[in-house]
Amino acid sequence: MQTSAIVAAGLAGGSSILAETPKPTQTSEKSGTPIPAGSMGTPLVPTMAFGGVEISRMILGVNPMYGFAHYNANFGASMAEWYTQERVCEVLHRAAAFGINAFNYVNIGRARQDLDCFRAQGGKMHLIIQVTAHDDPAALVKDLKPLALQRRGEEIDAAFKSGSMAAERDWCKKARDLGVRVGVGTHKPEVIDLCESQGWDVDFYAGCVYNRTRTPEEIRHILGGEMVEMPGELYLQSDPERMYKAMRQTQKPCFAFKILAAGRVADGAVEAAFRTAFQSIKPIDGVYVGMYPRRRDEVKVNAEIVHKILSAA
Questions:
Q1: What is the pLDDT, as a whole number, of residue 23?
Q2: Burial class (CB in 10 A: 0-12, 13-18, 19+), 50
């Protein structure tokens, strides 16, 4: 019901909540240059050491910007229609104003043009790039100068299912030669356990705290023979602790994503979900969080929550 209402609001049009609330603007009216993070009294997201630099422990996720709602086609279309290039840049600048200085970028569709626009406006973000099967890693490193390359979870999980993880390990070895940090993304805690047991030469892991790539057979087993209408989008409340456990068992940095179950966590439980995430991961770990600030200023709300939790730790 809650998500349906958001979809309805999105399809009906409307303006950005960012334009309706006081905020650090993306540029100074006098100089046209970006306003430094925290210069207007905004609470900054605490940082962690990663790849020789300090990055925010909350990294801006990319999925909502290009319609990857992980709910249904209508919601995804609403996100993609709302997120014009202007709004993508606005949210990136807004995030930077709260100290979020890293972006989990994916080179799909219009994304490169949007990133170029943001950079042309003076915006800066460390890039942790999700690398798909269609990407040329060497070209991404040459053109975009990322901090890290992360093999996307869809490719990794498909390889895990088919028994072809050796090819993914070779991919990581080739990425290592490009001079950037190398990571593995997954929706399955078993993948992290496997990579660790085999001693993969990677720097970090990104783990979805909900296992949304279960096979139909696995889902039927869990549900006692029943099948959900969206078998690839099963979010179980018992899932997060399994992924958090895998993250705690490795000494390498990890990034937890979908900690809000792709928007399924109710408004009143958002802070609790953030608190659970940061209490469950290591001090050297962070989170990826996608934001769709149409209904409320999620950048500000999330940054204030993370600042509150980590400043008190």
A1: 41
A2: buried
- 33 belongs to a structural domain: no
Mean pLDDT, rounded, for 55-70: 96
Q: How confident is the model at residue 47 (pLDDT cuts 50, 70, 90)?
A: very high
pLDDT of residue 231: 83
Predicted structure pTM score: 0.89
Number of domains the chain contains: 1
| Domain boundaries, position 141 | 2-25+45-312
Q: Would you put residue 263 in left (φ > 0), alpha (ψ -120 to 50) or beta? A: left
Asked whether the beta carbons of 265 and 231 are under 8 A apart, the reply is no
- Is pLDDT at 111 greater than 60 in this prediction? yes
In this structure, is residue 36 part of a structural domain? no
Is 206 in a helix, a strand, or coil?
A: strand
* 106 DSSP assignment: B
Contacting residues for 94 by C-beta, under 8 A, at least 6 apart: 18, 23, 24, 26, 293, 297, 299, 300
Phi-psi label, residue 145: left if phi above 0, alpha if psi -120 to 50, beta otherwise: left
